[in-house]
Design a protein that fits this description.
Strand 2 and strand 3 form a beta hairpin. The mean pLDDT is about 85. The protein starts with a strand and ends in an 18-residue tail after the last helix. Strands 1-2-3 form a 3-stranded antiparallel beta sheet, with no helix packed on it. By secondary structure, the chain is mainly beta. The protein is globular, with a radius of gyration of 16 Å.
């Protein structure tokens, strides 16, 4: 990927919830940074500005619950 910087492993950041890639930093034309998926520009990316890993982590959290059809199934004996 041209012009992207890897985020050091010592900084906690979640993987892309769509493809599982570790995000990278990329500078836009104005010199502001975007945290984004290295595989696809259609996947979530933060707004251009300061490096916002917290925003990336919030938006790449997968929540499991009964409303998503992922509740544990109980079978009668």
């Amino acid at each position: 990927m041209n012009g992207s910087l890897t985020i050091p492993k010592t900084i906690y950041c979640k993987f892309c919830k769509i493809c599982g890639a570790r995000p990278v930093l990329e500078a836009d034309k104005a010199g502001l940074y975007v945290v984004k998926c290295p595989n696809d520009n259609g996947h979530y990316q933060t707004r251009a500005g300061l490096i916002d890993i917290d925003d990336w982590n919030r938006n790449n959290t997968v929540r499991y619950g009964a409303d998503q059809g992922n509740s544990p199934r109980v079978f009668a004996k």
